[in-house]
Each structure stands twice: as C-alpha cells, then as structure tokens.
Amino acid sequence: MIGQLNAIEQEALAALRAVEAGDALENWRVAYLGKKSPLMTILGDLRALSREERPAVGKRGNEVKNALEAAFAERVEAIRREELQHSLTAGALDVTLPGRPIPHGRLHPHTLILREMYSIWAEMGFQVYRARDVETDEFNFELLNIPQHHPARDMWDTFYTTTPGVILRTHTSPGQIHAMREYCPQPIRVILPGMCYRYEQISASKGIQFLQMEGLAVGKNIRLGDLLGTMSEFNRRIFGPERKSRFRASYFPFTEPSVEVDVSCANCGGSGCNVCKHTGWLEIAGAGMVHPIVLKNGGYDPAVYSGFAFGLGPERIAMLKWGISDIRYFWSNDLRFLEQF
Ligand code: PHE
Least crowded by CB within 10 Å, which of 84, 101, 219, 240? Predict the structure, then answer.
C-alpha cells in the first residue's frame, strides 16, 4: 500500500510538471486530488485496512496529499506568472504613442446663426417667443389681414394638410397674433424664430423648409423711425459697423407702411460685385408698421398702441456672412460643409 502511495506521488508530480495551462491544471487536480482519485480513495477507505497497517498508510497518505497540494499551489502560481509575463510581452503596447484624436461634434450653421441673432436681439431687449409650425388658415392669413381669395395669398405657396383649415405656416408672422393675445395690453418686444414651409421650386436660394425670424414690438408711440433705427442697428451688429442700411417701400397686407430692408454689400463694400448682383445692396428682411387691423386682432386698440414687425431670413444672413453659395447645403448633411463651422 505504501508503495502504491509512493507511485501515485511520483506519477502525479511528473504529470504536474508537464501541465502548461490553466484548464490542464484543473484536469490534473481532479485526477490526482479529486474525490475519485486513487489517493483519495485510499484515504477514504482506511477502515478497510488492518489495525497494524492503518497508521502508517494514513500518515504516508496524508504526506502525499500535502505534498501534492503544495506542488499544485506552486504550479498554479508559476503558470499564472508565466501567463502574465506572456501577455505583457506579446501584447505589449507603447503607452508613449499619441492617442487617436476623438472627432468633435460641432454646431450646425442654423444653430450658430440663430444664437448670434438671439444675442443681438437680446441686447436690444427682445426675448424669444415660440410659436407653432402647424398653423390654421385663420392665424397664418386671415388674422394677418389676408382674407380668403385675397390676391396677396399668391405671395405664399402653401402646404395644406388633410384637415380643412390646418396648414404648415408659410411665415412666422402668425406668431405675432399669438404673442399679442398672450401679452395684451402690455408692451411687447419679441423675436419669433422657427421653420416655415412653402411649396416652392427648390433652388440655390429657395427651400421648401427654411428659417425665419420674426420680430415684433408693440407699445405706445412706436414709430417708423424706431423700426428703421432698429433694423440699421441690427445690420451693423450682425454684418459689421461699416454696414449701411437702405429701406425701400414695399407691400405686406399686415404692415402699413411696409418696407424692404437692404444692407450694403459686405463683399464689395457697396461698389458692386456678383454677390449683390452689382447693385451694392443685399435684401435681408421685410418689415413695416403693424397694420391697425392686425393690432386689433391681437387685442390692442390701434388708437392707443402702435408697433413694428420684421421678418428676417437667418439662412440668407448666414449665407452672406459666411459665403455659402447654396441654401441646400443646410440640409445636405455633407460633413465637408458642416465641418467648416
Ligand atoms: N412675413 C413676411 C414674409 O414672409 C415678412 C414680414 C414679416 C413682413 C413682418 C413684414 C413684417 O414675407
């Protein structure tokens, strides 16, 4: 029996030396120290031996067991060290190499131009008022003094929905009525930014979906001079202090009188180039004094209150400021375009 134990010990230690990897180790443990291993079978069955044999076999058996356990622990540690060493050398990485640059997201030119405009208008006391994109015919036209069948409706090619009377707003002007009805009879100074929708032929300068920024000031003693001064100041702040402003008589059903606002061409300084089509001027807004009927529709007594309104095209301003030649770039999602901002 003792000889058998010695043989087990020798075989086991020899087998252990041959073990190379973690899973083979476990197989070895099961084979030589597991419940059903020959060693454990002998140790578990000592009672079957004679009284004389029992102490010696038990002692030797335990010695072998301890020896194997110690050898096993040592081998486990050795293999772990080897594997660590291997992974350190084989998968070596040069921590001094520069990292890969993480691409930065950036703001869309729509966001950039809106933020710049917000801050200019905020400095002049205008706060942002949000109005809805989906409008009714009543707000988009009728309350703005554009009755059904009025020929001025031709100025806005409209997207209609399947619900009668519900349309996509063709301009931000219906927001004037919402703002007036909310604030009446207090004085108002708001800008209304947002998307507008027109059934247009898409081109380099026209989209079917585009930004507008409406402005509205209502109060007592607001005059045309206030509108002209405000627009001139905006032009200087957004395009530079050298910029001059020009106002041309125009027509909108919801303003009287109405003007078109031009700014002297930033590209040529007013001497004429292909950006301004050799006129020296660029059109940037429609504007005017709020029509008495519109004031009344907003809840204000036109005998007491007056106001001015304007409608700016943020994309157009961005195109002029940053030399963008085609309005379709704004929606093209072309990184070569977007990464320039
Ligand atoms: N709503 C007009 C348009 O889209 C612009 C405008 C706004 C004109 C406010 C006058 C006053 O053409």
Answer: 101
